[in-house]
Amino acid sequence: MVDKTSGVPLHRQVAADLRKRITGGEFVPGDRLPSERELTEVYGVSRLTVREAVGLLRAEGVLVAEHGRGVFVRPRGTIQRLARSRLSRAARAADKGAFLADAEAGGFTPSSTVQVRFEAADERIARHLRIQPGDEVTVRDRVMRADGVVVQLAVSRLPRVFTRGTAIEDVDTGPGGTYARLEESGHVIGRYAEHVGARMPTPDEVSALQLAEGTPVVVVTRVAYREDGLPLETNDMVLPADRYELSYEWEAE
User: pTM of the prediction?
Assistant: First the structure.
């Protein structure tokens, strides 16, 4: 099943055939790949060649290895992130804002771990929030899970002048979350802006999100603005690129 006279490296030929079998449905997400011994017999190549082929597909995020169990076709598990209504007041009133709305639409059970701290704003955060570098900000650092699997890292920062004495400084902000507490305090949100990019993850992000080698992340920075245009919050989110689909829609002008 490989052509040793083609000039194409054998491990790339094996990887291409495995990839074709996966996309063709012979191996579906969650399936265990045949063992190295079985693959060497099927393709008539060495174990080293098989390992290199599998390594290539792991780097692409097609396969994942589980210690002591084998190599598996990576589960899809794509989460659709709906921008249209996830931040609406109606969603907050029903306690279904943001990640909870994604969970309802995607049919998964959401959970999160939250840490609250206070720090001095650096140059970037000061620029987003239109405050001075060194001004105190409240930080809400969240690890978000779908059915127990970490799928998002999110760090919100707000000028502490807006959060002091409110539930925003508690781990549990209450129904509707941070934005509901801001509006209760008189800071009515007028608009949001999201800036979306992509990059390779840091080592800490690879560990936290359990990313396959070579998997990029989508980075989203959202800024919430008060009705008068004053920034209230900036939220930096890191999403595994192989698990998320970002959906936006808007009216034609």
Answer: 0.71
Residues 6+ apart with CB under 8 A from 222: 192, 193, 194, 195, 233, 234, 235, 237
The strand pair at 79-82 and 244-247 is best described as parallel
Q: Coil, helix or strand for 178?
A: helix
Q: What's the confidence (pLDDT) of residue 87?
A: 65
Please give the full DSSP string across 4-51, using - where no structure is assigned: TTSSS-HHHHHHHHHHHHHHTTSS-TTPBPPPHHHHHHHHT--HHHHH
Domain architecture of the chain: domains with CATH: 10-73 (1.10.10.10), 79-247 (3.40.1410.10)
| pLDDT score recorded for residue 158 | 98
Element (H, E) at 239: strand 231-240
Bridge partner residues of 222 (DSSP): 194, 235
Structure confidence at residue 191 (pLDDT): 93
pLDDT at position 154: 96
Nearest CA to 137 out of 122, 126, 121, 124 is that of 121
38 C-beta neighbours (distance < 10 Å), count: 11
Residue of 83, 80, 88 lying closest to 108 (CA atoms): 80
Contact 92, 184 (CB under 8 A): no
Averaged in consecutive runs of 10 residues, what is the pLDDT profile of the chain (253 residues)? 88 94 88 94 95 88 83 75 64 64 73 95 97 98 88 96 96 92 95 94 91 86 97 96 82 78
Burial 67-78 (b: 16+ CB within 10 A, else e): eeeebbbbeebe
